[in-house]
């Protein structure tokens, strides 16, 4: 069934960790991660559920011919059935890490997975990305206008060819007017183009053999929280604004365990977390 569904939008490794690591194997009362834009999976599900219902309702509201209010409510009431089909089609339940006594096939757990994933797409890409995705799931034939960031307007709102606004035309130049004298542009020294250097590949992640390029940062933060360690990432930017570099430290209980540099703060922070992960001895020995 997964081949019949539109591809789910990509979300980052930190969001994947929050969604697919079940609360049954997390510490009770674990504080929110202040370095994460998500907080935790329950926050994602809270905002994602509202965005999902809004997108699903809007799709049928814009359906032509128009649906009555009663017909619209009837279509919206079918959302739980659709969520069950989508979650099963994406095989998300197989990705969830949970305790042995947890039943992840209940309607509540199924809706949680869908809502949390929608929340991650909403936070990362915005509501239009959510709308494009859900439109492709509900009606693949209508997905193309949504992917272009537009919704097809009702036929009554479209202009006929004779109603199109004419483009303003610039006045024609005077054929008898003399051409202005030619003045060569000032000589400008352009530096030779710099050769393109591909970004170095991320080091393999020892805890995710099926996804060796997964980020270390969410794994490190999750492990540190589980061990109740305080983690800080002081950052410093040096150099010109257009070509400077970031230096980020990873401090565990105030002690430096890793330091990373890079053209962006996120890359430097990732490298610092990777070094700290190995320095703490959390990576499995080969």
Automatic annotation (TrEMBL):
Look up and give the organism this protein is from.
Dichomitus squalens
Q: Please report the name of this protein according to its UniProt entry.
A: DRBM domain-containing protein
What one GO molecular function would you report for this record?
RNA binding
What spans are recorded as compositionally biased (Pro residues)?
178-209
Keyword annotations = RNA-binding
Q: Which SUPFAM superfamilies match?
A: dsRNA-binding domain-like, RNase III domain-like
Give the matching InterPro entries: dsRBD_dom, RNase_III_sf
**Domain of life where this protein originates:** Eukaryota
Residue limits of the DRBM domain? 215-282
Pfam families referenced in this protein's UniProt entry, alphabetically: dsrm
The alphabetized list of GO BP terms reads:
RNA processing
Q: Where does the record place the region Disordered?
A: 145-211
Cited PROSITE patterns: DS_RBD
